């Protein structure tokens, strides 16, 4: 992104007079079309500009009738989801029936207690009123009312405590249950499905709890409001007319309330000056520290930052959620405030028409009723509006287990019986006219273009070529991390299309060693042992794998040996720690946060050991090695390749590398890739004789050792 220019619409606005935050909050279709939206997308959205923020809302139907229909459709969808909600509630009930009932009863009681408090308070006020009027307080009645109020308050405090005490326990039960369910749902997803942004993998166990709590809350509010309405409408100081008047204000407030928070929307900033500010600000963080210091660009960052501030001018960056609710005129605020005075007006008119009913207690009671109803209604509307979200969350939760993987499982077990395919030497691989583009890829050219090649069982094949040539993509297709689209060629394994085999059996026969493998946040023994999960606890096998992978020496460096967890999950968190006053706490926090660092090469050795552990299954028929040696020293690299070659019996070996030497010398077949195509194919001698792409890549590296000055210094 370049610096803001005069032509940038946002920057141009920024230089104008201070702007009314809601001024731009009008549909602005032309601007929407200016952005990176297709015509179809622009037609489906209503864009708003709120300061630096651009908000895209789904288009509402134009006519009022259609809007009402659309709202009704939304609610009928919520209503139709009741079997799912019932399933959800029954599932939670079955986790702990007693606790479920307790939580629900306590919630409903919460709704009732405001009515009880209203009753006791109004009773007390009436007794005091009578006492004042007669000049002689009814001590008995006052005592009784106060005792009743104290009991009521104590009971309320106890139930509140019980709710607070029980809720976290039940929340943990519910979350653990759904975490377990989601863990399984997510673990079964393949790479294209889990990276698909539209997939339902965003379900969370916390949402399960909050949906349950929210549904209980909505039920409690509805229960509470109904009991209040019934109670107040039957009181002398209340009555049906008063009740109706008292709910006018909250109803008006509801009709006039605009909250972006509750609406489906997409929010982003398209203000170049603001985006530049964010980028520059992020460069002050620890992530860029080293680069910023080395390049000595602190001064440049500061000056660019000031320029971006000037360019932003007075355009507000206050969050769009806060800006959205601001009205353009005070009209609705005034109407709502006046509506809030209706109960007082009612009381005043009533007092004038029926002076006998006039009393200080009655006005206090009315005020109480009206405040209580106002609050109960607002809370009910708030919670009921959320019900749609809870129902959606519950749907998403259950859909997580039903997501169809994009990689469809086959039916044939690998390896096939010996009479159908001989796999004793390893896996036989063929790519027939394969073209492949990554899902959602924006590149002009496919990652692979009409690639045909054959790697006979037991061969040592090496793929070389320039960056982005498609080398790793071939390996990913062989692991069925992705599938070739129908009609774009075929990957054939031992004579059958790769899709025919069951994924589990195929992956057992496959070992992948790549440069970007991660260490799991588990002890090293498990990190290595998980190459062969069934034998993960067999320390002898793990140590053998560590020796083969070149990690044995490294393991002996750690106090806890193979039990060391290099990257444990950290939960330590410090809050409000002062550098001077809380030195000890800071030291403790520092220790808790500390992870053990190992070098890139050492990490690679641990990951390589996992591959050697996998060899011990005896089922590996294809070993794919994708540049695992970039972090290794030359000796480590040589030893790794030698040990991998030594373990090649019964396996096809496929290496991706940029380094010519040990591997290319031993290769039965070299595949030279360029821009997604097979540029050349053959042995080292054959390709050198061609004097093409391979020879040119080889010569660049060879020159470094044969150039005259090197030869002279040697
Ligand atoms: N996950 C992905 N999504 C989209 N495009 C990708 C993805 N992975 C790779 N590509 C693109 O596919 C093309 C081939 O990538 P590939 O990783 O196979 O190249 P390579 O030959 O292994 O490169 P290198 O030598 O740099 O590792 C590149 O243009 C790359 O940008």
From TrEMBL:
Residues 1-10 have a biased composition (Polar residues). Residues 17-34 have a biased composition (Basic and acidic residues). Residues 1-34 are annotated as: Disordered. It comes from Mycena pura. Keywords: ATP-binding, Hydrolase, Nucleotide-binding. This is P-loop containing nucleoside triphosphate hydrolase protein. GO terms for molecular function: ABC-type oligopeptide transporter activity; ATP binding; ATP hydrolysis activity. Gene3D superfamilies: P-loop containing nucleotide triphosphate hydrolases. Coiled coil: none annotated. Residues 429-700 form the ABC transporter domain. Pfam families: ABC_tran (PF00005).
């Amino acid at each position: 992104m370049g610096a803001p220019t005069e032509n940038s619409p946002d920057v141009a606005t920024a230089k104008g007079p201070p702007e009314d935050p809601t001024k731009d909050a009008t549909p602005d279709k032309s601007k929407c079309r200016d952005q990176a939206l297709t015509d179809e997308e622009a037609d489906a959205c209503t864009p708003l500009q709120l300061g630096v923020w651009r908000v895209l809302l789904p288009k509402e139907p134009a006519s009022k009738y259609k809007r009402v229909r659309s709202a009704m459709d939304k609610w009928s969808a919520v209503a139709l989801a009741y079997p799912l909600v019932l399933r959800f509630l029954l599932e939670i009930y079955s986790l702990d029936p007693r606790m479920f009932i307790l939580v629900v009863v306590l919630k409903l009681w919460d709704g009732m207690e405001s009515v009880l408090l209203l009753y006791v308070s109004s009773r007390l006020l009436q007794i005091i009123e009578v006492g004042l009027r007669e000049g002689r307080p009814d001590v008995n009645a006052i005592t009784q009312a106060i005792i009743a109020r104290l009991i009521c308050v104590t009971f309320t405090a106890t139930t509140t405590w019980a709710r607070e005490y029980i809720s976290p326990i039940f929340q943990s039960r519910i979350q653990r249950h759904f975490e377990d369910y989601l863990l399984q749902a997510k673990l079964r997803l393949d790479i294209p499905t889990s990276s698909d942004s539209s997939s339902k993998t965003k379900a969370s166990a916390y949402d399960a709890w909050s949906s349950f709590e929210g549904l209980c809350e909505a039920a409690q509010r509805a229960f509470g409001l109904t009991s209040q309405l019934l109670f107040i409408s039957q009181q002398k100081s209340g009555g049906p007319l008063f009740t109706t008047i008292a709910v006018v204000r909250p109803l008006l407030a509801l009709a006039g309330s605009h909250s972006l928070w509750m609406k489906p929307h997409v929010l982003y900033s398209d203000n170049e000056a603001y985006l530049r500010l964010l980028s520059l600000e992020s460069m002050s963080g620890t992530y860029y520290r080293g680069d910023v210091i080395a390049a000595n660009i602190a001064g440049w960052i500061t000056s660019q930052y000031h320029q971006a501030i000037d360019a932003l001018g007075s355009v507000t960056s206050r969050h769009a959620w806060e800006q959205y609710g601001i009205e353009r005129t005070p009209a609705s605020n005034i109407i709502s405030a006046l509506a809030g005075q209706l109960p007082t007006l009612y009381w005043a008119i009533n007092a004038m028409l029926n002076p006998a009913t006039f009393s200080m207690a009655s006005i206090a009671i009315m005020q109480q009723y009206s405040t209580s109803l106002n609050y109960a209604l607002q809370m009910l509307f708030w919670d009921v509006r959320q019900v749609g979200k809870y129902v959606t969350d519950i749907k998403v939760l259950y859909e997580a287990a039903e997501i169809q993987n994009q990689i469809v499982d086959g039916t044939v077990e690998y390896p096939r019986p010996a009479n159908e395919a001989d796999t004793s030497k390893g896996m036989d691989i063929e790519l027939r006219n394969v073209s492949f583009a990554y899902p959602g890829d924006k590149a002009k050219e496919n990652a692979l273009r009409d690639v045909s090649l054959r790697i006979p069982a037991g061969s040592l094949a090496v793929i070389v070529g320039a960056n982005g040539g498609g080398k790793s993509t071939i390996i990913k297709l062989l692991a069925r991390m992705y599938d070739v689209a129908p009609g774009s060629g075929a990957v054939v394994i031992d004579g059958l299309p790769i899709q025919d085999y069951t994924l589990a059996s195929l992956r057992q026969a496959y070992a992948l060693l790549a440069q970007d493998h991660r260490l799991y946040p588990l002890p090293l023994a498990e990190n290595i042992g998980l190459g062969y999960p069934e034998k993960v606890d067999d320390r002898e096998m793990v140590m053998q794998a560590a020796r083969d992978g070149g990690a044995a020496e490294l393991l002996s460096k750690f106090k806890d040996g193979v039990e060391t967890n290099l990257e444990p999950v950290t939960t330590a968190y410090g809050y409000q720690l002062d550098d001077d006053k809380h030195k000890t706490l800071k030291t403790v926090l520092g220790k808790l946060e500390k992870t053990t660092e190992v070098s890139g090469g050492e990490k690679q050795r641990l990951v390589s050991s996992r591959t050697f552990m996998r060899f011990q299954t005896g089922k590996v028929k294809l070993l794919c090695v994708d540049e695992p040696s970039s972090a290794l020293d030359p000796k480590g690299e040589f030893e790794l390749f030698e040990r991998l070659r030594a373990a090649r019996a019964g396996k096809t070996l496929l290496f991706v590398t940029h380094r010519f030497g040990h591997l290319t010398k031993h290769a039965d077949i070299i595949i030279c890739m360029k821009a997604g195509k097979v540029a050349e194919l053959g042995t080292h001698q054959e390709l050198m004789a061609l004097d093409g792409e391979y020879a040119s890549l080889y010569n660049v590296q060879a020159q470094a050792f044969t150039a005259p000055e090197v030869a002279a210094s040697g």
